[in-house]
Every structure is written in C-alpha cells, then in structure tokens.
Amino acid sequence: MPQTPHITFIGAGNMAQAILKGMLAAGYPQSKISASGRTQSKLDVLTADTGIRTSTDNLSLCRQADVIVLGVKPHMMGDLVQSIAPAVNTRRQLIVSVAAGILASSIETWLGQKAPIVRCMPNTPSLVGQGAAGLFATGGVSDAQKQTASIIMQSVGLALWVETEADIDAVTAVSGSGPAYYFLMMEAMIAGAEELGLSNEIAKKLVLQTATGAAQMAQQSNQTPSQLREAVTSPKGTTEQALNTLNNGGFNQLCCQAMAAAHHRSKELAQLFKA
C-alpha cells in the first residue's frame, strides 16, 4: 500500500459522502479521494463542495484506486461488482464494503477471484461524525490495508475490529440498527411529556438534551451504566417508580429480544444476497 493510498468510493450516497467528508476534515488529501455515482448533476455538486474528482465511469476510477469502497445498496452489489471486475487488481487493491448483508465470499464470487476484503457496518450517526462501526478483515488483508480501513472509518467516529465475519451480524443488531432504538425511546418520551402537559417544543428539547447528557456522562465516567443508573435512583423516589414500571413491563427482556430479531434478520439477508 502507498503511504497515502488513493481511495475511490463507488456510490456517492449519504453514507459515502459522510465518510469522505470526514476524511477530508481530518486532513486526508482531496487529490487522493474520488467518487462515482449515477447522476452527473449530483456529482457536480459533490465536486464543487469537496474538490474531489467524481465520475460516472466506475471502471476508470477503480483502475486508479488503491482502495475501492463499495457503498451501493445491497441489492445492487452483485451487478456492480461484476461490472467493475475487469478493473480490479486484487494483488494491489483493497475492497471495503459498507453494504449490509453482503458476504465477503459473495464479493469474491462476483469478482471471479480471491480478494483482500474488509466488511464494515457503520451507522447513521456517521452523518454527524458520531458513528460506531464494526470491521472484519479477510485473511488476505495486510496490516497496512487494515490501518487504511481504520483511517477511513475513524474519520466519522468509533471503529472496532471484530474477529469473525459472523460478528458483523451482531454489530448490525447493536450499533447498525441501534440508533433507531434510541430514536424510538425519544419519541415515546416526547409523547409522554406532552401527555403530562408540556408543549411539543419544550418536550423535544428536554428529551434530546437529556439523551445527549446521559450519553456523554456514560462516555466520560469511570462508572458503568448500571452504577450511573443506581446513582440517580433514590430509594422510593421518582426515578425508582419510573424504572419499576419499565422493569415490570419486561424492558430488559424486550430490548434483548429486539436485538436478537435484528441479528436474525441480518443473517437472513446475508443468505438472501449470497452469490
């Protein structure tokens, strides 16, 4: 790998743009990033915004790349990878996939050859630089290539390596789908606050700031979430009554069941899109 590899994003949607803009903000050279898409007008806006090279020609961009980031939707991956296969030299290039449910073995089948592949599962807070991603590397990925993949994903948040490809399904259930769990909790709390007489504006501001503050406390504290919860739960106080209601409704078990359902669906999708 070159010291500063050229990274090409195939697919310039929201997630790809979040990542490449995060890389640029972190100081990665714009001359070493390119992106492709299907709509020239949208690519023109991206070029004007970032200064990177863009094109509707996937093959030309892949030929100049040291790293190819596959950022299209899962159902499009098969046709896309087969179409760029003539421009892929797996002895030189790293393939990074951010598509959910696409196995590394499927990418190799579509390419028609073995390849160094890193699978990533980012999440939507990457759009605001607060992402959480899991990464898995196949056996052919070098240490330098792993470092490059880390640089790419760390530009928009936390990036952690997992040991097996199956772990990506668990990452999907935890952090990939996880933001929606918190958004649902926020929705429920805002509705509950309105039932208690607060306006929507005040309810929303209080709920969102409370969520932000709780997350920052958990990040910055040496205490566990359990210890932080206990610290704010006075015996026979208001918080205890609220938590008792949640626990009596099976809150913990329901969370575990929800994550298990997401995990199961992730494994199903891997089989659905399997080459």
Task: List descriptors.
single chain, 275 residues, alpha/beta, 12 helices
Structure description:
With 275 residues, the chain is of the alpha/beta class. Helices cover 53% and strands 13% of the residues. It has twelve helices and eight strands. It has an eight-stranded mixed sheet with strand order 3-2-1-4-5-6-7-8, with helices on both faces. Helix 4 (77-84) crosses helix 5 (104-111). The two termini are 29 Å apart.
Q: Tell me about the biggest sheet?
A: 8 strands, mixed
Beta strands, count: 8
Strand content: 5-15%
How are strands sequenced across the largest beta sheet? 3-2-1-4-5-6-7-8
Give the end-to-end Cα distance, rounded to a whole number of Å.
29 Å
The share of residues in helices is 40-55%
Low-confidence segments: none
Please give the radius of gyration in angstroms.
21 Å
The overall pLDDT average reads 95
Structural class computed from helices and strand pairing: alpha/beta
Shape: elongated
Number of helices: 12
The helix-strand sequence is EHEHEHEHEHEEHEHHHHHH
Short structural summary:
The protein is an alpha/beta fold and 275 residues long. 53% of the residues lie in helices and 13% in strands.
